[in-house]
Amino acid sequence: MPRHRIAATLLVAVITVFLCFRTPDWPSAFNKPAREILNSTLGFQHIFAINLPARTDRRDALALAAALTGLDITWTSGVAGQDVHDRVLPGDPSVSRQLSFGKRGSWRAHMNVLQRIVDENITSALIIEDDADWDVRLKSQMQVFSQAAKAFTQPSNGQTVAEKHSDPPGQELPLNQLPPHMRKPRLTPYGDNWDVLWLGHCGTSFPDPSTGNIVPSFRVTIRDDETVPYSKHLQPHPFALEDALSEAYPPHTRVVHASSGSICTQAYAVSQQGARKLLWQFGIQSLTTQWDLMLRDWCDGLYDDLSPDSDTPHIEQYSNQLRGPVCITTQPPLFSHHYGKGAASDITAPGGGYVSKNKEMTPYIRLSVRLNMERLVKGQEPTEQWKDDEPQLNE
Ligand SMILES: *[C@@H]1O[C@H](CO)[C@@H](O)[C@H](O)[C@H]1NC(C)=O
Ligand SMILES: *[C@@H]1O[C@H](CO)[C@@H](O)[C@H](O)[C@H]1NC(C)=O
């Protein structure tokens, strides 16, 4: 090989190595979907599932659902409320000791997972309840979600896209119009600065700054998402009103925004920083009601005093550290409560109303893993649960 060829090859090699090592610091040219999210823990370090050992039925079903969609579950034991003694409850005893056994057990089970995440210095983890369901296309949904979430979680030049667009309030951008200059995250493929990704809920609201809500009102919209059910099917259970999402947006639109008034914890991810803050607040400091309602209020910023007249100096200068919880959610949710057959009696749906024991269903999830378990086990294609309606003639 002539000498100048060798020199040129070496130069290319050096530049390539340089570029590879420099990439993490460079603004990514495009907001590309992260490949790590396709792995068996969805780009988190772990997926924890909370399961009471006595509920072998739920464990069988969740283990199979996870296997059929290429997910790797780390089991963590649910806690019976009778085993949670008065003396371990944090906060005002006259409040915490009033909690029912059900609420105590659920609180403790969630605290145990947070404690483990903190103890083992886990960078990020998804926590799911053992009756959660999801779409067979979850991994690609999570990739799209992460692209939108980074507008809230990934600062570039000290500010996130959501913060840049927070004045005046009420702005939104379609996913494909997010500025392409966001820095590549170092800690998690969902961004570097977040506490909670509230992925499975049974209701959330668009943040409304006029009510004094401190979370950013910015929204990212994803149009023509075929995994989003048709508008009339957007409701947490059959007798609920349709979600605000169905009135505000054309069919098949997904919206990613800061969590506001979210309830039910079918699935949520926490970062290490989020786990530490939550364990401090609810393992050590206070316990007032059931877990999802405390998490709702925490994400809404009700545990923070960020008002300008609090005695923190230079609030603008330090706004990065003081900006309050970063909890991001999506409508419709990516995980949802599965209503199975065979319950001894009708079950009360979260948020009120009854679901028939004869009809299996999962709100919001079109190609449900649970409802397609038999087909998937037999190697057949999954079928649709929430079909689009035929357009009416006189509409
Ligand atoms: C999936 O990706 C995340 C982020 O890179 C990583 O922390 C995790 O260990 C990966 N999971 C597996 C099972 O390799
Ligand atoms: C925890 O992990 C982070 C990286 O994710 C590392 O920087 C830190 O040193 C670790 N802390 C401990 C106590 O190991």
Describe this structure in words.
It is a single chain. This protein is α/β, with parallel strands linked by helices and 395 residues long. The protein has one domain (46-305, 314-336): Spore Coat Polysaccharide Biosynthesis Protein SpsA, Chain A. 29% of the residues lie in helices and 13% in strands. It contains eleven helices and 13 strands. The chain has helices spanning 3-22, 56-68, 93-96, 101-119, 138-153, 161-164, 244-248, 272-285, 291-299, 319-322, 373-377; strands at 46-51, 74-77, 124-129, 132-134, 172-174, 196-200, 219-222, 254-258, 267-271, 327-331, 335-337, 347-348, 354-355. The strands form three sheets. It has a nine-stranded mixed β-sheet with strand order 2-1-3-9-6-10-8-7-5, sandwiched between helices. Helix 4 (101-119) crosses helix 8. Mean pLDDT is 86; it is low at 17-29, 308-322 and 343-347. Residues 36, 39-41, 43, 45, 72 line the site of one 2-acetamido-2-deoxy-beta-D-glucopyranose.
